[in-house]
């Protein structure tokens, strides 16, 4: 997700063992102008992964990373249409 907005340097690394710690690190390192948008993107990504996980567990739906990323992009676009202004600053929201 972060590579789509030109911030792959902030992507989780092997040393990042906690989602919370990684997110705190990203929040500190992200350019101020994009910080709220990136936080929205992280929330959206986590939510979409959770929804896909539930589909796999409860509906026996199979998925893959590319499908999840596509769903995240589609949902980000909808969030932007609904008024997520900070998310619209990120290129993923406009694609």
Number of strands: 0
Number of helices: 5
Portion in helices: 55-70%
Separation, N- and C-terminal Cα atoms: 12 Å
* Biggest sheet layout: none
What's the rounded overall pLDDT mean? 90
General shape: globular
Q: What's the gyration radius in Å?
A: 14 Å
Structural class: mainly alpha
Secondary-structure element series: HHHHH
Low-confidence stretches: none
Strand composition percent: under 5%
How would you characterize this protein structure?
It is a single chain. The protein has helices spanning 19-29, 35-59, 65-81, 85-88, 91-94. The chain is mostly helical. α2 packs across α3. The model has no long low-confidence stretch (mean pLDDT 90).
Characteristic terms for this protein:
single chain, 95 residues, mainly alpha
Draw up the topology in text.
Layout: H1 19-29, H2 35-59, H3 65-81, H4 85-88, H5 91-94
Helix pairs in contact: 2-3
At a glance:
By secondary structure, the chain is mainly alpha-helical. It has helices at 19-29, 35-59, 65-81, 85-88, 91-94.
